[in-house]
Amino acid sequence: MIEARSLTMIYGNGKKATDDISFNIKAGEIVGFAGPNGAGKTTVIKMLAGILKPTSGTAVINGFDINKDPVKAKMSFAYIADNPDILIQLTGLEYLNFIADMYEVKEEVRKEKIKTLSERFGMSDVLNTQMREYSHGMRQKLMVISALIHDPPAWILDEPMTGLDPSAAFELKQMMREHAKEGNAVLFSTHVLEVAEQLCDRIIIINNGKVVSEGTLEYLKLTNPGMTLEEIFVKLTGKPENEA
Ligand SMILES: Nc1ncnc2c1ncn2[C@@H]1O[C@H](COP(=O)(O)OP(=O)(O)OP(=O)(O)O)[C@@H](O)[C@H]1O
Ligand SMILES: [Mg+2]
Fold first, then answer.
1. Residues measured by CB to lie within 5 Å of ligand 2, the ion
2. Which of 144, 159, 227, 239 has a Cα at 20 to 30 A from 98?
């Protein structure tokens, strides 16, 4: 459902941020994407989402090639960027309507979605406030709501839990579980290994732009006996360069 095919990205400055990254997330799966700062997670996610054009390789979402069939592909997934500070001059409601317009969500459907999602994330009272007045977590919650407004089968989320309070994080995790259970696919990047441990069917770990491990938690633990996920992560990805 979410397929990376040999995604390689060389930025304009010559930096090879990702090198031949491939994976396939199937219907019903929640997959965690982990790796140190600068490993290439956001770069991969932006290529999957069609925001960055890969130097080589492609992504296929729900059978649609993101580079050949971008509109159909984009209609079929939800995307949360790593930065929620966009269009902050709009009110929350204006932003949600703008996104709903882009995804052609019908009036009655969007009303219901905005109502239930805002209630779930405790945002109903601030929808008429400009987002510039929101806290970081409130902006993040709004990004979550906006991503889910068109109810797509695949979710591609870049550090979606960052800045969320425990109740909102709980809601989102719950929603990710429900979504996967209904036969959909979720890919999310995270630095919080406990979250990956709680939620994921599989974990993909990348380092220096390459996949260094991929498998279920059981597989990772079986191949690294007696180690916690944190210890496995440190073993596979090494210490940060400035501490090495
Ligand atoms: N626009 C850009 N131009 C040049 N290099 C970039 C650009 N964006 C990212 N990079 C480089 O690509 C590499 C991967 O960055 P990326 O943002 O994908 O990492 P990440 O795994 O998401 O990190 P983090 O955990 O900090 O979010 C880094 O070395 C980064 O410096
Ligand atoms: Mg990132």
1. 41-42, 82
2. 159
The HSE-up count of residue 138 (CA atoms within 13 Å, CB side) is 18
48-103: pLDDT as tens digits: 999 999 999 999 999 999 999 999 999 999 999 998 998 999 999 999 999 999 99
The CA 15 to ligand 1 mean position distance, Å, reads 9
Ligand 1, atom 2: nearest CA belongs to which residue?
Answer: 11
Q: Where are the CATH 3.40.50.300 domain residues in the chain?
A: 2-76+153-243
Give the β-pairing of 202-207 and 16-25: unpaired
Residue to mutate (ligand 1; options 11, 52, 156, 193; most atoms within 8 A of CB): 11
Minimum-distance ligand 1 atom for the alpha carbon of 36: 25
Q: Is the pTM of this model over 0.85?
A: yes
DSSP state of 90: S
3-state secondary structure of 188: strand
Please give the Cα distance from 144 to 181 (Å, whole number).
19
The pLDDT, as a whole number, for residue 240 is 54
Ligand 1 centroid–CA 241 distance in Å is: 15
The distance of Cα 161 from the centroid of its chain, to the nearest Å, equals 10
Quickly name the fold that domain 2-76+153-243 has. Answer: Rossmann fold (3.40.50)
How far apart (Å, rounded) are the C-alpha atoms in residues 226 and 61?
Answer: 37
Placement of tokens 């601030």 in the chain: 126
